[in-house]
Amino acid sequence: MNNSVEFSKKIRVEVLKMIHNSGSSHVGSSLSCVDILSVLYFDFLNINKDIVNDPLRDYFILSKGHAAAAIYSTLALKGLIPLDYLQEYCCDSAKLPGHITQIKNSGVEVSSGALGHGLPIGLGIAIGNKNSKLNNKTVVLLSDGECQEGSNWEAFLMAPRFKLKNLFVIVDYNKLQGYDRTDDLSSFSNMEKQMELMGWNSITIEGHNHSDIKRALTSESDKPTFILANTVKGKGVSFMEDKLEWHYKTTTPEQLNSAIEEILKK
Amino acid sequence: MRNTFIKNLENELIRNENNYFLTGDLGFGVLNTIKEKMGERFINVGVAEQLMAGMAAGLAHTGKKVFIYSIANFPTFRCLEQIRNDICYHNLDVKIVSVGAGVAYGTHGYTHYGAEDIAVMKPLRNIEVICPADPVEAMSAASYCIENAGPAYIRLGKNNEPVIHENQQSIKDYVLKSHLTGGDILVLSTGSIGFNVKSAVTELYSESVDITFLSVPYVHPFGKVFHENICKYKKIFTFEEHSLSGGFGSTVLEELSKQGFKGDFHNFGLDLDINEVGSQSFMLEKMNLDIKGIKNTIKKYL
Fold first, then answer.
1. Does residue B242 contact residue B191 with C-beta atoms inside 8 Å?
2. Assuming Cys at both sites, which of A45, A65, B203, B263 could form a disulfide with A113, CB separation 3.0 to 4.6 Å?
């Protein structure tokens, strides 16, 4: 793999395969954040097999825990969890539960799935590390629907006072949630401005553009960074893109093949 | 009790850089010393209990020992899922401290009564539940928190609880030190109701009733502390400043059932359907949990 774009294609293929093989949901939610994960793990986070338990490592928390397939695939391709674990996803005696579950020595720091938990945890980790005079980064990935959970806003309000320049919060703004289009329920289109007013280094990006993602992550600021990433649910597979039903559906064998072909062709 | 608990933590909290104390915007007059002396390790998270519990989990992930603090149901019910998933399921070193057990905030009404919290905390994975009865047990609870890692719920009273123990034990050992031993009647209580219970039992003992009283601050896992052969008793009573559903009495009953207890069991606690509001002593009297009420209750079943 010589760049994050190649990495992202491999992640997408593994995501499609593992969700298909387990007959499970959340393929749309997993695909929309693959580019973000790809840039994070290829190019940004200081985390690998050798330092997986080192207090100096960077921390990533998948707060949108239903995108488990995406992070499991990413970590497997990066050598942090065994590749064959991907065959045991969301099934009987599963090594990899359907919502991200902590695995020791793997870079999966926290079990999540109930939404709204990851950010307060990430804030605690960032404060603990900063007070210990460590320079490591903490990155938390939220879904857009998840931003309706009040616990996030408790963290959004309180975080700026700690001056955590190493805390990064990314919202995978794919505009579809469990049962409606996100902006029909609560609009996040002004969230960049809202977060800036609350004291965050606030940036909107195109969430599938790797340069954009990298630029936002490396923007210099004394404040914690908030990144609103405009994404597409099901990104990479044209028949899935921006469709609510692909929050839930599993591919048929034909659909799986067609999806993988489309990704590898790009 | 609350001040004793904090005072007994103070030195360690201040001295050990690994210790953090989070409060949900409460602690005036109680937390002043640690607020002043712990520096950045004392954090007022504001009126944000889900944040408090989540942040505590995060800090614990980086190896800290964290206390979270609020009153009544705020550090428990408000952030229950955070305690369940983020703290307990991950088996993190976070101590959840609640002040105002039972009707300690009596005049403030139901929103400030800790009446169901034991029931709600007990089932959580990896958790220990500790309910001190007096300042002496509170000191033991503080030591226990410092010396042991893992999730724990510490249910404190408020203030002016009379002392019921002459000697301090480690928190799990109070059940070994019975007050008045004799006969086949056992009376157990948890929390500050222990003073009323002990007084009532003492009066009965002086009226020649063969009766044993134990205060049980370490409520859960109860089976871990109660080694004594509980089945030797013919009658067992439990008292708590808590709902009858799922609290201390229920905990004891679960253990009795496991051990095949064949005797009589009676548990007594808060009956908030009385729809009264008043000081703690007023409320307890109304619910027959004052000394006279407890004594009469026990007598009725002898």
1. yes
2. A65
Per-residue exposure over B205-227, b if at least 16 CB sit within 10 Å of its own CB, e if not: beeebebbbbbbbbbbebeebbe
pLDDT in tens, B149-202: 999 999 999 999 999 999 999 999 998 765 556 689 999 999 999 999 999 999
How far apart (Å, rounded) are the C-alpha atoms in residues A128 and A140? Answer: 15
3-state secondary structure of B44: strand
**Cross-chain residue pair B90–A124, CB shorter than 8 Å:** no
Q: Which of B195, B76, B82, B85 is nearest to B133 (CA)?
A: B195
Q: Which residue has the tokens 């006072």?
A: A161
Residue A168, H or E segment:
strand A167-173
Q: What is the pLDDT of residues B8-33, one digit of tens each?
A: 999 999 999 999 999 999 999 999 99
* Alpha carbon distance A255, A16 (integer Å): 10
Nearest chain A residue (CA) to B45: A158
Distance CA B168, CA B253 (A): 27
* Nearest of A1, A3, A20, A4 to residue A237 by alpha carbon: A20
Angle at A78 between CA B64 and CA A28, to 5 degrees: 90
> How much is the pTM?
0.97
Nearest to B43 by CA among A158, A125, A130: A158
A127 near B CB under 8 A: yes
Contacts of A199 (CB under 8 A, 6+ apart): A159, A160, A161, A223
Query: What's the sign of the alpha-carbon dihedral B100, B101, B105, B111?
Result: positive
**Strand blocks (E) in B4-54:** 19-23, 42-44
Interface test with A, best of B42, B45, B62 (most A CBs within 10 A): B62
- Reply yes or no on whether the pLDDT at A1 is more than 80: no
Q: What is the 3-state secondary structure of B168-185?
A: CCCHHHHHHCCECCCCCE
What are the tokens at B243?
A: 């709902």
Alpha helices by DSSP H, A23-84: 27-32, 34-39, 68-77
Task: Work out the average pLDDT over A64-70.
Answer: 97
In this complex, the residue of B46, B55, B63 whose CB is nearest that of residue A123 is: B55
pLDDT tens track for B79-93: 999 999 999 999 999
Note whether ipTM > 0.90 here: yes
Closest CA to B153 of B86, B223, B90, B67: B67
